[in-house]
Amino acid sequence: MTAAPDWLHDAVFYQIFPDRFANSNPDADLPDTVAWESEPTPTNFFGGDLEGMTQHLDHIASLGANGIYLNPIFEADTNHRYDGKNYFAVDPRLGDLAAFRRFIDSAHGVGIKVILDGVFNHSGIGHPYFQDVMEHEGASDYVNWYSVENFPVTSHPVPNYRTFAGCWDLPKWNVYNPLVRQHHLDVASFWLDEGIDGWRLDVPWLVPHGFWRQFRELVKRENSEAYIVAEEWREPEQWLQGDMCDGTMNYTLRALILGFTTGSLDAVEFSAGVNTLRDRIPDGFHHGMLNVLGSHDTERVLTTHSGNRSRCALAHSLMFLSQGAPMVYYGDEVGLTGENDPGCRGSVPWDESAWDGAMVDHVRGLTALRANTAALRRGTQDCWAVDPDTVALVRDWDGARVIGIVHRGSGIRVETSSLPILNPVPLLGEAGHDPTGFLVGPDTVLVLTGQPAANAGWG
What we know:
With about 450 residues, the protein is α/β, with parallel strands linked by helices. It contains 12 helices and 18 strands.
């Protein structure tokens, strides 16, 4: 079985929603652009652009991230750009192809890879091919590129064509049509030629698996190290058989982590869930999982924790201690809040006095710990409940063992006899300890490293 690319062992991703990350030149904004840091709505534009991303690559690099996942950048009519109308062009609000090339070159120059969002299930209603179907009906050259029931084409009150999730402005591509498949493959090839390092696949379960096998063949032929990651909320293993994807967005792990840190799951339930998920993922693909706490499709992680920063920090710690490539959703590291779409799509305040400095430092500390600890990047994983409020994540690699103890309560003493046998040395966290145990403070993570004993086991 083909494994996920090796570089993903060492990857830390940062997700950017392009309209809301950074605006390089407000004086050039279109008239409908709202002030930066306005309240996000489903329809307003803030003016974020590619040049703004390029200007702030130093911030991303300073966090220890070496990968960027970009939400759609192709020409579209909305701020989210999942309604593409030209997949071969950068949306003019973001810049042009030259600006994209500067961004890619600058990112690669500081060791950051870039993956794009591929929206191959549906286009926008403004796509010229769908507009041609609306105008010429059955005589259109593109009538079979979509699935229209009858003519004339009507969008209201109910569309008479297949859509994504009933959204009238998102007509569904007919990916059974070989011409549509070739269009999509040409899109994949075009942007790989422009230097991207992979694709995130939007709603891939709505597209025939046969197409994704073709897609993988093309992508890997052009760049064997390219990363293909599927959006997936429940069942990752179907994508990880070596013929479609290298990983999935790990929303299952997200649910487990946030369940534990918000109190809806105890440590026993969390540990059982994490170990079950580990066993579901085929060998060779654990490091390809894209671990998330927040995204453009969820409330922000600090909002999930009702503003409790210590619990939010615990959640980040669990993500970075876990198998898979961790990803920080833009702005989470500075303490942005917001409910699900559109609230989670606010803008980054670039006045650093508005940042949560402790949160930024915590993320930087986690990326540094991961970078300096091979077992956290490449080790096998086991998870145990120490008590209902305390979990231990055990990572083993090349004769070294790391144990991350995550406690969500008011403090606990962890007896050495309750841990997998090692001779530990604290790496992160405040703890007093003696040969028989360790003191873990309130809502604290303690990371221990050492050599496992010859027959090291639990207890």
